[in-house]
């Protein structure tokens, strides 16, 4: 007999699991998830808010010109 399997979003980089009922990302190691939920939980890789912040700052570093306008002084052109 099988219980219904819940699929949750999980960020492996930061070890954060999205708990839908709480609408929050909580710290869970893979072992912790296995121990707490066993087969009842299936995790899919996802990007957590920290990933997005990381990506954003990486993008800022890689493409400073794209972001210069919003943060730096505006220089009129044309
Ligand atoms: Zn993350």
Describe the structure.
- Helix 2 (49-62) crosses helix 3.
- With 78 residues, the protein is α+β, with helices and mostly antiparallel strands.
- Strand 2 (16-19) and strand 3 form a beta hairpin.
- It is built from three helices and four strands; from the N terminus they run E-E-E-H-E-H-H.
- The chain has one domain (6-70).
- A four-stranded mixed β-sheet has the order 3-2-1-4, with helices on one face.
- Zinc ion binds at residues 11, 13-14, 16, 47-48, 50-51.
Rg over alpha carbons: 19 Å
Mean pLDDT, rounded to whole units?
88
Which ions, cofactors or small ligands are bound in this entry? Answer: zinc ion
Helix content: 25-40%
Question: pLDDT below 50 for ≥5 consecutive residues: which ranges?
Answer: none
The secondary-structure class comes to alpha+beta
Total count of strands: 4
- Largest β-sheet summary: 4 strands, mixed
Query: Termini distance?
Result: 71 Å
Number of domains: 1
């Amino acid at each position: 007999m099988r219980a219904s399997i819940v699929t949750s979003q999980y960020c492996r980089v930061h070890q954060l699991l999205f708990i839908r009922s709480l609408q929050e990302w909580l710290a869970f190691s893979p072992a912790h998830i296995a121990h707490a939920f066993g087969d009842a939980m299936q995790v899919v890789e996802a990007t957590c808010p920290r990933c997005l912040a990381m990506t954003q700052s990486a993008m800022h570093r890689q493409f400073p010109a794209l972001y210069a306008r919003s943060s730096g002084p505006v220089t009129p052109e044309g």
